Every structure is written in structure tokens, then in C-alpha cells.
Recover the amino acids of this structure.
């Protein structure tokens, strides 16, 4: 859902692509991505610049996404009961 980057000032936060685009457009000094995250629904947040209320909202959203199981790999296929042998 989140992780602290090695630089100690950036947090990687799970989001949705649409929200990420809005954040990047609204405040590119605070929100950014690297090439690594282009195809993934994550946004990088500069902790030294983000407003505490905005960070709280981002973390709450990331928590909701994690709880809702929005990751395709988090969905496990149902186990099939083998047909009885004849």
C-alpha cells in the first residue's frame, strides 16, 4: 500500500491512474513518478512538500484500495471440486 523510498523524503503510495494524473497535474513539485512506475498505479510523494491533510487522504485511499482487493493478483481462483471418479 505504501513504502518509503531510499531517499528518505519520498513515499510511494498506491492510487488509481486517474487520481495519479490529477495529482501530477495539480502539483508536480509534490507528486511525481519515475519510469519504473509508469505502468503501475502508484504515485511518489515528497514528504517535505506534501500537506499533512493531503497525505492523510492519500493514505486513507491506499488503505481502501488494499482492503477492497483492487490488485488483480490478490484475487485467487476458486478451488474446483474434482468430479467423482466412476
Amino acid at each position: 500500500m505504501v513504502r518509503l523510498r531510499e531517499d528518505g523524503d519520498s513515499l510511494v503510495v498506491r492510487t488509481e491512474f486517474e487520481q495519479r494524473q490529477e495529482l501530477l497535474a495539480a502539483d508536480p513539485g509534490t507528486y511525481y513518478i519515475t519510469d519504473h512506475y509508469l505502468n503501475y498505479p502508484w504515485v511518489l510523494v515528497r514528504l517535505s512538500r506534501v500537506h499533512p491533510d493531503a497525505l492523510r487522504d492519500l493514505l486513507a485511499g491506499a488503505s481502501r484500495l488494499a482492503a477492497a482487493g483492487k490488485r488483480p493478483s490478490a484475487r485467487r481462483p476458486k478451488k474446483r471440486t474434482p468430479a467423482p471418479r466412476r
In short: The chain has two helices and four strands. The chain has one domain: 2-39+47-70. Residues 2-39+47-70 form one domain. The CA atoms of residues 80 and 86 lie 18 Å apart.
